[in-house]
């Protein structure tokens, strides 16, 4: 009789511990969902007016990246902190027996900064990462307002994303287009804290079929 009571008590304690553990896990999942949901909700960038066309020397993309800067980003810019955006296009050859193969890729970097002395906005565009030094080798333009500079950044005008040789007939290929705010270009003290912040979460990812262009 005493043994039966002891076994019963052990089973009761074990059941309570499992119940507490399940409750803690569910609570943590709920907290994580609440933490990450705002960032996901505000991370969208819309691609509009997209035109993908083939010319004799390559494939060209024209489009508009439609997004808005948060109040936190505008404040950082107004305080003299430049922001770097990266636009990347990769031609991928699909393979059922292995990972898809990257056959071509190009990048475009945008460095947006505010110049307090002149009260003008400066946008540098380059095919390589734009650093504070050596800005003279990049294409830079000045604008009177942030909306004007942002409109120039968002406009993709006949960007060559691949050579014609990258296209092959009777092969499944696609163009992967990605756009993001490059947090690695921020001061190191700000990089980690802003990874999960919805104010700093600007990204876009979309794919286009290329079979029609290869014919």
Summarize the SSE layout with pairings.
Blueprint: H1 2-41, E1 46-54, E2 58-66, H2 71-78, E3 83-93, E4 101-115, E5 120-126, E6 139-143, H3 146-154, E7 155-163, E8 173-181, H4 188-191, E9 203-209
Account of the protein in words:
The chain is an alpha+beta fold and 215 residues long. The protein has one domain (42-209). Helix content is 28%, strand content 38%. It contains 4 helices and 9 strands. It has a 6-stranded antiparallel sheet. It is globular, with a radius of gyration of 25 Å. The N and C termini lie far apart (85 Å).
| Helix count from the secondary structure assignment | 4
User: Reading side by side through the largest sheet, how are the strands ordered?
Assistant: 6-5-4-3-8-9
What series of H and E elements makes up the topology?
HEEHEEEEHEEHE
Shape: globular
Which percent range fits the helix content?
A: 25-40%
Q: Please identify the structural class as seen in this structure.
A: alpha+beta
What's the average pLDDT? 79
Number of domains: 1
| Total beta strand runs | 9
| Rg on CA atoms, Å | 25 Å
Strand content: 35-45%
> The biggest beta sheet, please?
6 strands, antiparallel
Query: What gap, in angstroms, lies between the N and C termini?
Result: 85 Å
Stretches where pLDDT falls below 50 for ≥5 residues? 1-13, 29-43
